[in-house]
Design goal:
- Chain B: This is GDP-L-fucose synthase.
- The complex is a heterodimer of chains A (328) and B (301).
- Chain A is an alpha/beta fold and 328 residues long.
- Chain A has a domain of 221 residues: Rossmann fold, CATH 3.40.50.
- Helix content of chain A is 41%, strand content 15%.
- In chain A, the strands form three sheets. Chain A has a six-stranded parallel beta sheet with strand order 2-1-3-4-5-9, with helices on both faces.
- The longest helix of chain A is centred in the first third of the chain and has 22 residues.
- The N and C termini of chain A lie far apart (80 Å).
- With 301 residues, chain B is of the alpha/beta class.
- Chain B has ten helices and eleven strands.
- In chain B, β2, α5 and β3 form a beta-alpha-beta unit.
- In chain B, α6 packs across α8.
- Classes of the chains: A alpha/beta (328), B alpha/beta (301).
- At the A-B interface, α4 and α5 of A face α4 and α5 of B.
């Protein structure tokens, strides 16, 4: 028969910078970092919507948005997030809202027909509480979850499975990335529901500002944690959008651990608080150790660049310039 | 199937105000419709037995259909039940499919999330696990009396009998019946036949649901299983006899068995006074009769 011309292969993400990219959750810690990175890389058509402009928990609104905008790429970084306290106080809100957001976005992405690739961001809390460390991707669902955030975790697990289901049944190029504990600019520094690192920054800063004699931190300080600067995560996300189309989710971590005690001391130093650091060991510690095995993404060729101390210095600077308005 | 068994039981117990909607009347996957329905009807009690079912093969062939629809149904009903303000108690039907493949047998409630559900079945199981966790979350945050029952391998009358089903009992009935009417010499069944299975009649499960609604307000889900195990060989023989097929059964041992045993520990349910009453043979006889009636109706149409 006649000559068959090879179909032009689709350009990879990084060769497709004029294509429309929808970043869901662009105001949060992760979404804002990804947005910054995309713009810095020269993407010309990045679409965002605030919660007030587009409530992702509303199915009809999300469908209408996708039908109108027809993005080629979707980064799903929108979620309802919070620390131990928030999760245990509002479990129903956490689980329902996150499920709705995920289901609506992934399904609308398929139905509108224009989406070539979708990346879903999860969290390391999807893994079993007692998963062998470092935690590999294969540990998923092999044991019970950490009770204090199992609601958020089960919703995220459903999100991973949803991406797999859409790939298997409809060939949607949907991938999932699971970051370790993140920190950086635009984090949530709220006293009640922030995660440990921003909470420490805030508390040491406030103690410095009012010359408090000491800062009391919950727990023993002995749990081990891994932290990754959000700019590194943004970089990894773009790397995966460009190069990964596998069924399995991908861990994104730095590979380096610190104890909460080392972290607290580092934050104290960076903030410049001169008082005492006291540990209230009557309060819970949370998970004893959490280190991801990120060899999968490291072997693909991606490595983090931001060192913890340097990252803390930059984050504290951002906090002072953007969060503190009239503290004095 | 289970929903209609529950409906029957409630009606026979004298409940005067049982509300149900067909799929055509109310699409539970459509959030605004569910909200409107709950705000209009304001039920005091809710039993959530709706969902896409179909067994391991159906689930592996259509992962999205199972996941998206079932997640939406669960989220919509629980959210609407909470928001309308009238619901005093809600029961969510989960399934033994939530348990890991290598769970200890009989499977206790505590086996949940100690391992992954059977590969291929996760698209059905994950939404069920999510529903179970949602009920716990709603109880914790809102004080909603949301409970969960986890039946094992239900069978029973369904109207209409599906033309395609990979649930083993209806599949065997149909295949033996077809072999009988076409005069086929043999029926091939997959696997060795030595796998043990527990089957629970929908009427017995309905009775358990009613008991749970009346007496149980615990955080943990409750297994609902007949406690009677048969090998698939014994089951096939029973179906053959009930249908009256006189040919041979041939075992295709090249095909996979699935798990060798799947029995849930229903001592929690039994301790509440529940006793399954339907003997497997009697259940099969009634089911076959119903199947024949359905076929006659279809033939006439």
């Amino acid at each position: 028969m006649g000559t068959v011309t090879a179909a032009d292969p689709h350009p990879s993400f990084l060769a497709d910078k004029d294509a429309k990219v929808f970043v869901a959750g662009h105001r949060g810690l992760v979404g804002s970092a990804i947005l910054r990175r995309l713009l810095a890389l020269g993407f010309t058509s990045v679409v965002v919507r605030t919660h007030a402009e587009l409530d992702l928990t509303r199915q009809a609104d999300v469908e209408a948005f996708f039908a109108a905008e027809r993005p080629r790429y979707v980064v799903l970084a929108a979620a309802k997030v919070g620390g131990i306290h928030a999760n245990s106080t509002f479990p129903a809100d956490f689980i329902a809202a996150n499920l709705q957001i995920q289901t609506n976005v992934v399904d609308a992405a398929l139905r509108c027909g224009s989406v070539r690739k979708l990346l879903f961001l999860g969290s390391s809390c999807i893994y079993p509480k007692f998963a062998p460390q470092p935690i590999t991707e294969g540990a998923l669902l092999t044991g019970p979850l950490e009770p204090t955030n199992e609601w958020y975790a089960i919703a995220k697990i459903a999100g991973i499975k949803m991406c797999q289901a859409y790939r298997i049944q409809h060939g949607l190029d949907a991938v999932s990335a699971m970051p370790t504990n993140l920190y950086g600019p635009h984090d949530n520094f709220h006293p009640e529901n922030s995660h440990v690192l921003p909470a420490l920054i805030r508390r040491f800063h406030e103690a410095k500002a009012c010359n408090a004699p000491e800062v009391v931190v919950w727990g023993s300080g002995s749990p081990l944690r891994e932290f990754l600067h959000v700019d590194d995560l943004a970089d990894a996300t773009i790397f995966l959008m460009d190069q990964y189309s596998g069924l399995e989710h991908v861990n994104v971590g730095s590979g380096s651990e610190v104890t909460i005690k080392e972290l607290a001391e580092l934050v104290k130093e960076v903030v410049g608080f001169q008082g005492k650091l006291v540990w209230d060991s009557t309060k819970p510690d949370g998970t004893p150790r959490k280190l991801m095995d990120s060899s999968k993404i490291h072997e693909m060729g991606w490595k983090p660049k931001v060192d913890l101390k340097q990252g803390l210095v930059e984050t504290y600077k951002w906090y002072v310039e953007n969060v503190i308005s009239d503290m004095k | 199937m289970l929903g209609s068994a529950i409906h029957r039981r409630l009606t026979s117990l004298g409940f005067t105000n049982v509300v149900g909607r067909t799929r055509a009347e109310l699409d539970l996957a459509c959030e605004p419709s569910v909200r409107k329905f709950f705000d209009a009807e304001r039920p005091r009690y809710v039993i959530l037995a709706a969902g896409k079912v179909g067994g391991l093969h159906a689930s592996s062939a259509a992962p999205v259909d199972f996941m998206t629809e079932n997640l939406r149904i669960t989220t919509n009903v629980l959210t609407a039940a909470r928001l309308c303000g009238s619901v005093r108690k809600l029961l969510f039907l989960a399934s033994s499919a939530v348990y890991p493949v290598d769970a200890p047998q009989p499977i206790p409630e505590s086996a949940l999330l100690t391992g992954p559900p059977a590969p291929g079945n996760e698209w059905y199981a994950i939404p069920k696990i999510v529903g179970m966790k949602m009920c716990q979350a709603y109880r914790l945050e809102l004080g909603m009396d949301a409970i969960v029952a986890a039946p094992n391998n239900l069978y029973g009358p369904r109207d209409p009998f599906p033309s395609e089903s990979s649930h083993v009992i209806p599949a065997l009935i149909r295949r033996f019946h077809n072999a009988k009417v076409t005069g086929a010499g043999e029926v091939a069944v997959w696997g060795s036949g030595y796998q043990l299975r527990e089957f629970t009649h929908a009427d017995d499960a309905a009775e358990a649901v009613v008991l749970l609604m009346d007496r149980y307000s615990g955080d943990e889900h409750v297994n609902v299983g007949s406690g009677r195990e048969v090998t698939v060989r014994e089951l096939a023989e029973m179906v053959r006899e009930v249908v009256g097929y006189e040919g041979r059964i041939v075992w295709d041992t090249n095909r996979p068995d699935g798990v060798m045993r799947r029995l849930v520990d229903s001592s929690k349910m039994r301790a509440m006074g529940w006793e399954p009453k339907v003997e497997l043979r009697d259940g099969l006889v009634k089911l076959y009769r119903g199947y024949l009636r359905g076929r006659v109706t279809n033939f006439k149409a």
